[in-house]
């Protein structure tokens, strides 16, 4: 239902029961909070039973309340400010075991990522990465850590990996100006989506490069021009983004590419081990250090 959900609820309000109208009015006026409330919590907030909330979800066309809740979350995913994020999640984490709550949510996000990521897109992305002349990677703000991680390992595998790392829009386009049909562009962005990453993705697509989007849904602006969409759940935890599922997906991507490039990687790491040993890159312990 996407952007029309609140309009639909408003249109249906006159035909609702008294209790359902209370739910509808709260959702329309406080959808940012309702999106993260359980059915029980929403019911107690507006003064109706949990079963009334569940029936309301069915009334507006959903199989159950969790589906309605996810639709609300998708609606606001890219709209909340950092302050609003803190307000929305304070009720969820207050008086809770924060460690268990946050890790539990991350486990759920990895599970949903495994269910929702297209195996066909994943395999196709691996194939075009392995065949690319040059690989361009961009991720800014919180996604920059993911881009750097991916770039670090891809640089061990491929000779032409370019991490686009700049705060200037003009410099960004200067770094990708030579991208072409033989190249691959990997854009990484999650709500709130980076305008620079989306613009770079559009440029890469117009230049004929294969575009891989690592994002959270097919409704992401990064998915518009992507040849392959790798979806990872990245819901907010208070004022920060949870990047556990995206990082896990990137791990899988690196391993899958590595398996296809096994012989090259073996030679690369054999050479690297000699360099690391010669220049004492890593601390030696125990017998290795001659103790």
UniProtKB/TrEMBL annotation:
Single Gene Ontology BP annotation: carbohydrate derivative metabolic process
A GO molecular-function descriptor: DNA-binding transcription factor activity
Transmembrane segments: none
Highest taxon of the lineage: Bacteria
Residue ranges of domain HTH rpiR-type in the record: 3-79
Pfam families found in the cross-reference section: HTH_6, SIS
Keywords: DNA-binding, Transcription, Transcription regulation
Domain SIS as annotated: residue spans: 125-264
Protein name as catalogued: MurR/RpiR family transcriptional regulator
């Amino acid at each position: 239902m996407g952007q029309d959900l609140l309009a639909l609820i408003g249109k249906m309000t006159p035909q609702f029961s008294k209790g359902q109208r209370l739910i509808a009015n709260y959702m329309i006026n406080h959808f940012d909070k309702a999106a993260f409330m359980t059915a029980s919590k929403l019911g107690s907030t507006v003064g109706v039973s949990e079963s009334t909330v569940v029936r309301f979800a069915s009334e507006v066309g959903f199989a159950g309340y969790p589906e309605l809740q996810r639709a609300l979350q998708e609606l606001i995913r890219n709209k909340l400010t950092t302050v609003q994020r803190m307000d929305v999640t304070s009720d969820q984490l207050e008086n809770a075991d924060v460690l268990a709550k946050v890790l539990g949510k991350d486990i759920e996000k990895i599970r949903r990522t495994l269910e929702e990521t297209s195996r066909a897109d994943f395999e196709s992305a691996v194939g075009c990465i392995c065949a690319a002349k040059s690989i361009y990677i961009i991720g800014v703000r919180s996604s920059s850590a993911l881009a750097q991680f991916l770039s670090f390992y891809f640089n061990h595998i491929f000779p032409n990996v370019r991490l686009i790392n700049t705060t200037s829009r003009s410099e960004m386009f200067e770094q990708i100006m030579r991208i072409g049909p033989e190249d691959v562009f990997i854009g990484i962005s999650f709500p709130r989506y980076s305008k620079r990453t989306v613009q770079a993705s559009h440029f890469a697509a117009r230049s004929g490069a294969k575009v891989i989007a690592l994002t959270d849904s097919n409704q992401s602006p990064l998915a518009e021009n992507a040849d392959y969409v790798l979806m990872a759940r990245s819901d907010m935890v208070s004022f920060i983004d949870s990047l556990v599922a995206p990082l896990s997906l990137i791990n899988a991507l690196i391993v899958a590419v590595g398996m296809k490039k096994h012989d090259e990687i073996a030679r690369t790491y054999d050479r690297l081990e000699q360099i690391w040993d010669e220049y004492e890159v890593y601390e030696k312990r125990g017998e290795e250090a001659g103790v």
